[in-house]
Amino acid sequence: MSEKTETALGVLQKQVNQPLAAALEVCARCGICTEACHYYQAEPIAAHMPSMRAEELRKVYRSEYDWLSKLFPAWTRSEKLTDEKLATLAEMAFTKCTLCARCTINCPMGVDTPLLMTSIRAMATATGNAPEILEMLADSAIEKGRDPSSYLGYFLDSIKDMEKELQELTGNPQARIPVQKKGARILYVALAGAHTILPAAAIFETVREDWTLSIYEAANYGVFLGDASRAKAIARRIADEARELGVQEIVISECGHAYYAMRWTAPNWFGDEFNFRVRSIVEVIADYVQRGRLDLDPAANPEPIAYHDSCNLGRKGGVIEEPRIIMKAVTTDFRELTPSREEAYCCGGGSGLVANPDVMDLRMLTGKPKVEQVRRSGASIVVAACENCRLQLGDLSAHYGAGFGVTAIADLVVKAMRLPGAKNTIETAMTSAQLDAVRVEK
Ligand code: SF4
Ligand code: SF4
After folding, report:
1. Where are the beta strands (DSSP E) in 273-384?
2. Where are the domains positioned within the chain?
3. What architecture is domain 294-439?
4. pTM over 0.85
């Protein structure tokens, strides 16, 4: 056995707990999950069946943990892990599954295929088989946390420039973007780039929220790697900042995986020391809307507009009604995609795929069901409360010549607020080709 396979099997052994063992043991081979997967919908081949993907890990698992398989591997179709097999598993888990969990909610046994794929990602990451770009992005976030002084000056300068834009937008020369403000009620954690800061700042300013901007980005590439220690280190920077500032609540920008990591995973990582409420900015805006704290004109957004449920925010995160509360308040022609809510199709770019330039063709193929949904809805604009989804949807619209624009919820809200400096056109999301330039901004 090579050093790599030994390491990978060690990672698997550490991961085998009750949920993973259940996912490895209980599949009834009924095939009900097959049609649920957008990969299979886009290209109906056996390799795209969720149960076939899971079976690849089960073969290895049986060869290590099942006595019958150890004696008669051919009978049980078990397979010893080799370096080649590890590379094949890694390629599958990092590119052939977006961890969207649509198969899981359609499985009568509740088999958690994303959990199986995440385990493979962990094995692959520990043995140098993960996509380099994800490793690089995760490490750079951790490095920033270790030494914020390396970029803080530049960051604060860019916020000062952004503050001028906020003042023009709101028509208020006193408008501010507070950073590191002790005792603020909300710590808002944005993504790289002004597009996730300015609209939120305009909304906070309008309702006179007591908030402060995080010096860190919300994105957590450790999650995509299946690397709990890196994911935890990235989340810890934000938790520590929240504690040092004494905020009551952490609010995450429109980003699915970042929300899921802080809302649902971080409390398990940090236990009692993580005593903050965590919400998505979408939940916060919906709350303002319901309380009548925003003066909104839906006629500002008259186009047919659809909302795409990000898997991490909707199906996995439970934020399903809040975006609809906002959409109905800021548009006049809101259209549902079919299916939507818990049953929404993944856009095809989740779980780090958008950051990986090597899988562009695959992303365009597996995003086809989403494009067809949008076409059927007749929407000319698609709103997504997740940066990964927006990038993928923008790429899909361009690739298929579908002609729909893509934007964030906060942009629609700002437009409906009829602020003095607001533009009359909706800022459409950037494409993934523009992603790298934005990443270095913050
Ligand atoms: S998690 Fe999503 S992408 Fe992965 S196998 Fe299930 S349905 Fe397909
Ligand atoms: S639906 Fe569930 S039990 Fe049936 S094949 Fe798929 S994973 Fe297995």
Report:
1. 277-280, 305-308, 334-336, 381-384
2. 3-130, 133-286, 294-439
3. 3-Layer(aba) Sandwich (3.40)
4. yes
